[in-house]
């Protein structure tokens, strides 16, 4: 039986990934996070749960009691929190992550590491983004993610592991909570408008974002574990396909599908948020599409899936 470790398994993306893995594979899963609901998957014989911080060596040792075939690394200190605490970001997003990868590599079976990287490695590009776009991160979060991408590619070159780094766009719709994500307003719009509550947008009507539903994200993560390694570029990193949508069209579609009133929306753009999350240009991802990765197809499907998560 194949074995997979999922760090950050109790998080928004992690829980959806775990549930999809259980329904579409026969793999044994080891779930690792700071918090895992006691009742979640309590009696599933295919699941082991380890509660702890990836920066603690003994926690990683517990997870690696038996060699794994796949490691999905989702655990991270998110963007806003990383920017406010660079030392903690270095500890979690860089040092602990690299230590984890080194221990996994020492298994000797060349496991595949699926690393959840981010479009933040690209910074704030103003022109079309394609597979030749340079890494020019504008936040510490993106800088540390870019450094890990390079380290993984080097470990792959040395045949210690198989590396697949996929850069995630904005994933929606996350829970209505404060978790350090500067882009949380995107998910908040779904929760508030679908409940008939007012929403004040911190970006303008013309703001454009690259978005993906958490359901499609989980599918892409699993695909990353199973794709032909030869379909990956030399960098071992790909920017995922995503839908580029304007804030105005996104909110209109949420209202249409929720059968709510457009009068509940107000606009108060914040220049910093607009720069970081509201000016994403045209995105072309031929390498990722050739490798088999997909976006949600259209805005209607994206919103429908996000609203389903909110329900």
Mean pLDDT: 93
**CATH homologous superfamily caption of the largest domain:** NAD(P)-binding Rossmann-like Domain
The amount of beta strand, in percent, is 15-25%
Calculate the terminal CA-CA distance, rounded to whole Å. Answer: 35 Å
Order the strands across the largest sheet as they lie in space: 3-2-1-4-5-6-10
CATH fold-level name of the largest domain: Rossmann fold
What integer value in Å does the Rg equal? 19 Å
Output the structural class.
alpha/beta
The count of helical stretches stands at: 11
- Could you say what the CATH architecture of the largest domain is? 3-Layer(aba) Sandwich
List the uncertain runs. Answer: none
- Helix and strand sequence: EHEEHEHHEHEEHEEHEEHEHHH
What best-fitting shape do the alpha-carbon axes yield?
A: globular
Q: Would you state the CATH class of the largest domain?
A: Alpha Beta
Number of domains as seen in the coordinates: 2
Helix content: 40-55%
Q: Could you explain how this protein is built, in words?
A:
The structure is a single chain. With 311 residues, the chain is an alpha/beta fold. The chain has 2 domains: 195 residues, NAD(P)-binding Rossmann-like Domain (Rossmann fold, 3-Layer(aba) Sandwich); 93 residues, UDP-galactose 4-epimerase, domain 1. The chain contains 11 helices and 12 strands. The strands form 3 sheets. The chain has a 7-stranded parallel β-sheet with strand order 3-2-1-4-5-6-10, with helices on both faces. It has a 3-stranded mixed β-sheet with strand order 7-9-11. Helix 1 crosses helix 7, helix 6 packs parallel to helix 8 and helix 8 crosses helix 11. The longest helix has 20 residues. The two termini are 35 Å apart. The mean pLDDT is 93.
């Amino acid at each position: 039986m194949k074995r997979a470790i999922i760090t950050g398994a109790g998080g928004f993306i992690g829980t959806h990934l775990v549930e999809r893995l259980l329904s579409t594979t026969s793999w044994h899963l080891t779930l690792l996070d700071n918090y895992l609901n006691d009742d979640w998957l309590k009696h599933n014989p295919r699941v082991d749960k380890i509660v702890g911080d990836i920066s603690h060596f003994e926690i990683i040792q517990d997870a690696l009691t038996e060699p794994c075939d796949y490691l999905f690394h989702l655990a991270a200190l998110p963007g806003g929190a990383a920017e406010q605490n660079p030392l903690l970001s270095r500890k979690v997003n860089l040092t602990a992550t690299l230590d984890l990868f080194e221990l996994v590599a020492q298994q000797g079976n060349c496991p595949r590491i699926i690393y959840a990287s981010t479009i933040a490695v690209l910074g704030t590009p103003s022109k079309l983004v394609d597979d030749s776009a340079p890494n020019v991160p504008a936040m510490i979060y993106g800088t540390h993610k870019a450094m890990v991408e390079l380290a993984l590619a080097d470990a792959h070159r040395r045949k210690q592991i198989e590396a697949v780094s996929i850069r995630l766009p904005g994933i929606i719709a996350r829970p209505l909570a404060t978790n350090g994500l500067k882009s949380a307003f995107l998910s908040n719009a779904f929760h508030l408008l679908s409940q008939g509550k007012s929403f004040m947008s911190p970006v303008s009507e013309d703001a454009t974002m690259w978005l993906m539903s958490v359901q499609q994200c989980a599918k892409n993560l699993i695909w990353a574990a199973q794709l032909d390694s030869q379909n990956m570029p030399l960098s071992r990193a790909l920017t995922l396909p995503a839908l580029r949508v304007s804030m105005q069209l996104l909110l209109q579609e949420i209202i249409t599908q929720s059968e709510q009133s457009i009068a509940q929306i107000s606009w108060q753009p914040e220049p910093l948020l607009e720069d970081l999350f509201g000016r994403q240009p045209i995105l072309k991802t031929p390498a990722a599409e050739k490798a088999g990765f997909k976006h949600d197809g259209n805005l209607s499907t994206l919103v429908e899936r996000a609203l389903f998560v909110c329900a």
